[in-house]
Design goal:
273 residues, mainly alpha, 13 helices
């Protein structure tokens, strides 16, 4: 095969048409002014506290959800990869993937039923306590974090599990036979080899949480809006497309910044390899 790049041409064309062109148009729209182009829309955005608060709230929500997801995903992936026998491992992975078979919005609606003051958890606690128990969780930031962290946990666990199953078991067995303790085996063998899977999962979780609209609306109630909610309300309310495009471009820039760990990890591997 003389030039395999010809096979990539359809993908490049599709990416250019359906991804790059809309982003370029959105960037142009965010710079649009009454008398030309400029950065006044960005200056106006950062001069309005309710907009900067929404941006910071989006970062906080995505950061906390990603952190919680990573904390839960590591031991869960370790359990699936090293403690479950191959006979039952596929079944456990299918259980992990089961929530992905339902709509993201439907899962958010189901969590409304669980977290409400008349929901399953509150009713069970009321039955055990003998008096009415109210959770006061629904329509708060805590509910949004819970909904996004659960989704992120499934995603990060899946990518970590894939990285851990690729680790040669002989490396782990050799470390154990040489007297290494479980923590040393994890720190010296499993952690560096599974780190790429964690970087992928954590980055995807952060990206999804940053731009999510459904969970903060259905579980957070929209009382303290994130940037995606503010962007949609701007389009539906005043149809101020340059302002909405400015918010969208800020989300795009933050998402691109989330890809920095990929570059850092790649540079570290090349420098040490």
């Amino acid at each position: 095969m003389k030039n395999p790049w010809y096979f990539l041409l359809p993908a490049v064309v599709l990416i250019t048409i359906f991804f790059m062109v809309p982003i370029i148009n959105m960037a142009r729209l965010s710079l649009s002014l009454a008398d030309g182009l400029g950065f006044d829309n960005y200056t106006a955005f950062f001069s309005k506290p309710h907009q900067t608060d929404a941006l910071l709230r989006s970062l906080q929500l995505a950061g906390i959800s990603t952190l919680i997801s990573s904390i839960i995903a590591w031991p869960l992936a370790l359990f699936l990869a090293f403690c479950i026998t191959p006979r039952y491992r596929l079944f456990c992975v299918l259980l992990l993937l089961a929530p992905f078979w339902t709509s993201f919005t439907i899962r958010a609606f189901s969590w409304q039923l669980v977290l409400s003051d008349n929901g399953v958890i509150a009713s069970a606690l009321t039955l055990l306590a003998g008096y009415q128990v109210t959770l006061n969780v629904l329509y708060t930031m805590k509910a949004s974090v819970l909904g996004l962290a659960l989704f992120g946990t499934m995603l990060t666990t899946l990518t970590l599990f894939g990285a851990m199953t690729a680790i040669e078991r002989s490396l782990v067995e050799a470390g154990a036979s040489l007297g290494a303790k479980p923590w040393s085996i994890f720190y010296d063998i499993i952690l560096p080899l599974a780190a790429p899977g964690w970087v992928v999962g954590a980055t995807l979780t952060f990206v999804i949480c940053m731009g999510d609209y459904a969970v903060p609306t259905l579980l957070g109630g929209g009382l303290k809006p994130v940037l995606a909610q503010l962007m949609l309300s701007t389009v539906k309310g005043t149809y101020d497309l340059p302002t909405a495009a400015t918010m969208a471009m800020l989300l795009v820039l933050l998402v691109l910044m989330a890809g920095v760990p990929f570059l850092v990890h790649k540079l570290l591997r090349e420098s040490t390899g």
